[in-house]
Amino acid sequence: MPDQETQSTAVQSTSPLRPIGGSNTVIATSKLCKQFKKIEALKAVSIQVRKGEIFGLLGQNGAGKTTLVKILLGITKPTFGDAQLLGVPVGVPLVRSRVGYLPEDHRFPEYHTGASLLDFYGSLVGMPPMDRLRRSHEVLEIVGLKGRMDYKIRTYSKGMKQRLGIAQAIMHNPDVIFLDEPTDGVDPVGRREIRQLMTELKARGTTIFLNSHLLGEVELICDRVAILQQGELIREGTIAELTQMRGQFVVGLADGQTLPKEDLEAQGYKIRPVGTMWEFDLADGQTIDPVVDLLRARGLGLRHLLEKRQTLEDLFVETVLAAEPGVDAPVARQR
Prior knowledge:
Blueprint: E1 25-36, E2 39-50, E3 54-59, H1 65-72, E4 80-85, E5 88-89, E6 99-102, H2 114-124, H3 129-142, H4 158-170, E7 176-180, H5 188-203, E8 207-211, H6 215-221, E9 224-229, E10 232-238, H7 239-243, E11 244-253, H8 261-266, E12 270-274, E13 277-281, H9 289-297, E14 302-309, H10 312-323
Parallel strand pairs: 3-8, 3-9, 6-7, 7-8
Antiparallel strand pairs: 1-2, 1-4, 4-5, 9-10, 11-13, 11-14, 12-13
Helix pairs in contact: 2-3, 3-4
């Protein structure tokens, strides 16, 4: 009897496989579906991840994130739809040597040392012995473990084991890396170093597919994010696009100058003081341009003009609650 994870060979995509996206596309899915008996784990998910991009996948537990990653890695098969990795269908053996993967809650044999573990993983992807020796020293230094490379893994803390997991994921210089909760159990200094490492990998053209519950980390490091809810893609975009609070601006004048509040309110603007600044709420159809024009006409110095943004965490909570059947979206906090 096939288990649920592989029970999808009977219903495969009947459409001819064709390239998804352009030549710069590293990860692509088209109307990807995965069904486990009566459970729809993924519902027509279509995403594209470009070369050299850090792409964040967000969602609550059970949203379908792990299922999507398993399909992209060729661990399980989709029920419908297409998925491609590095320009070829997922699951092609030859492409696996170009992929690095750090699973969540990974377990390494604790009789290994850090160095011997990386030598073993390097051998699995066909790295020559001398290359494995050189590269293991390099990556252990990158993740801050070179001084403990000859210690048994059983002596490592959780944070050290997490660093070692990242080291094995980048051991063979992969083109694309899947990182599942890479900073779990790592102290603040270590998290910052891991973010810096991801930035350096991105600068070299490496594509990173990041799955994390630490939304502050995701906001700092990711170029684009996608939010899954009950197997469905409900939001996708750049951090700037998703966190933008349309219709809300913060305006600041030069020291000693006074905002013509009554004149602007007469034009229909809602204004409130926020410290030394002024916050504007724009109604539908309003723009901030007349405000700027009036201030300039009065000879006032505009030293601050910014469209407000919310945190990625606020956006995530608001989005997933709004998408939950029978659950109202949170009401905006009264000021």
